[in-house]
């Protein structure tokens, strides 16, 4: 089969309409093992295939791209860079996006190699074409270009190539194409800035980062919303957070939340403001962020009491994120009666909102109530128990009812709530005290699909892993749960076959 690849390449070079032979070559290269193809490809030249890309025949282009993907993949990055740099550069200028993606994918392999990337860094023309690819119409092309360029900037040589040469002006020129392309360049800058404090310094010195931060105060509320979302990604790194604090951006976003009350268009960007602080609290410290910026938690509570679905959804997710760790739970609990009102609202949403909102609400409740065994102090257990009872007047009966509903996601959401309290002694006492509840847990027939079976299994596992389960549930129920756990989530009891004799 390897010989047929060589023969077909020679034959194709002499044909004016080689589509049939190209399809044969495609089948041949796909049937040759990659290691064999590697030995073969290193001794061949694929110029004829690149030349055949210069046509208006879409089918021919697609077949050539498929063949080149396979052949070029077989080449080592250094060999690829040394022998096909010009072809890849030309591919970035092609009118067909499949060819552009092919070229960028192979350039991606080159820039991931410390030995091969030098070839790209020494090629201003190639770098320029990569930058201009960010401005292409197809997002698939832009994404590949952003990925390759961010990989190039992983070290000082790459940072110098992008930010201390004419390439910086090319980046700025590309930004002028449209709002969409401008934000693609910001995406690249943020990916680079998040790598290290050195990378961030390059991005800040280029003025591109400063320009993004300036968009936070723009007149266009949609652009402002996008800018806030992008700045949130910078807050994921410690050096990024320090930079935002030094630039006064965190204080600025806090003031934007305050000012949102008087802005009729705040609904477009307010959710992203809240998400910013929610993410900041989790990567930094829930207590410090909520104490320093009290307007954040106040706004979250206001949003969940409102009627706007988008705002309610964001507040649900934010409360769930905050309540997923002990420090966050304590911060929420310190708000006292305000959080008690929130809990009652959660109970209401879990029963009477849209299906999507109820599912998100149940996830939030499960996050609030979950408590790892090693963190179960008397005070924290008392807190989660009081939260559970604040949700509904009869919470066990309510969640048991939800777990019986025909909507799989709500059913699973209710099981997640039970799983959250399953390792806590007060939760176990409520379960054993609810008539028929233990029988419901070990009844496999209540779970109709894989996700439901997995959710029930997690509940059983949480119970069995608890240190207090045998004492509270009793040995008989404990052994039943252990048997369930040992049998696995998908166990089905075998039924004895009954043979019936009879004549035909």
What does this entry show, briefly?
This protein is mainly alpha-helical. The chain has helices at 2-13, 19-31, 34-42, 47-51, 58-73, 77-91, 97-111, 117-121, 124-133, 139-152, 156-163, 167-175, 179-193, 197-205, 208-214, 221-234, 238-246, 249-259, 270-283, 286-292, 294-305, 309-322, 326-334, 337-352, 355-369, 378-391, 395-402, 408-421, 425-432, 437-442, 450-464, 469-473, 475-487.
- Average of per-residue pLDDT values: 92
| Structural shape | globular
Spatial extent as radius of gyration: 30 Å
Assign a percent range to the helix content: over 70%
Distance between the termini: 58 Å
Low-pLDDT segments, ≥5 res: 496-504
Strand content: under 5%
Largest sheet geometry:
none
Number of strands: 0
| SS content category | mainly alpha
Counting DSSP H or I runs of 4 or more residues, the number of helices is: 33
